[in-house]
Amino acid sequence: MTSPDTEAEHVEATNLLYRDPALYDVVQSDSTSAGMCQTLIDLHRPDARTLVDFGCGTGRDLEILAKRFECIGVDLQPGMVDYAHQARPGLDIRTGDMRTARLGSRMDVVTCMGNSLAYVHDNEAISQVFATFAAHARPGALLVLCSPVAPITRTEPTTATVDTPTGPATVTIRHTWDLRTQINTMHRHWMLPSGDEARDEIRRRVLFPRELERYAEGVGFEVLDMLDGTGTGLTGPTAYTVARQTPR
Fold it and tell me: Any transmembrane segments, and where (predicted)?
């Protein structure tokens, strides 16, 4: 296993948004993850009062969740955590590796959203992450994940305009898929308002639904549902998984 600092530096180097947390906040401002998380908690654990979010980034979702829950956020990347402390000083956000983090407390809800789990590629490391989830879950606690469950396999590039703090940027995206490793790579080419260019190569591990069930069950969680937010079951490439910690 690589050291947390080395891993953080590697992840940051692959993604422009991680190198520029303010831009990350703007680009992700339309995220519905916090709302979906609250809906699942209302459905399966409406009495929940405490929550820990692994891979919380700039704390954008955590800020919404903290209006209702007593929250702690954990993220691997010091730059994201430093930005979160400046932008959202009222939140408890800590630097940590979700493969090894131990906060010394158990929560009613454990979350891992924003594709954070997909940055863990190795089977053993994924098992370590799920052990971390279990170590922070009270009996009956909910686990809420958002992660890729199927690859994006289209080969033709797509182009979109993205608003940034300094004006509109153009981003062109294409995907590649390696079935052997289950890695879906997103290649992004940015044309920034300044005229500068930037390139990303973001590698995400796809965990298929039955794999997610196996990892969750291995540490004492029972999967209650998987849904992609479309209202039509599980059809899209990204899904929310909700599970409950059961007595072992």
Answer: none
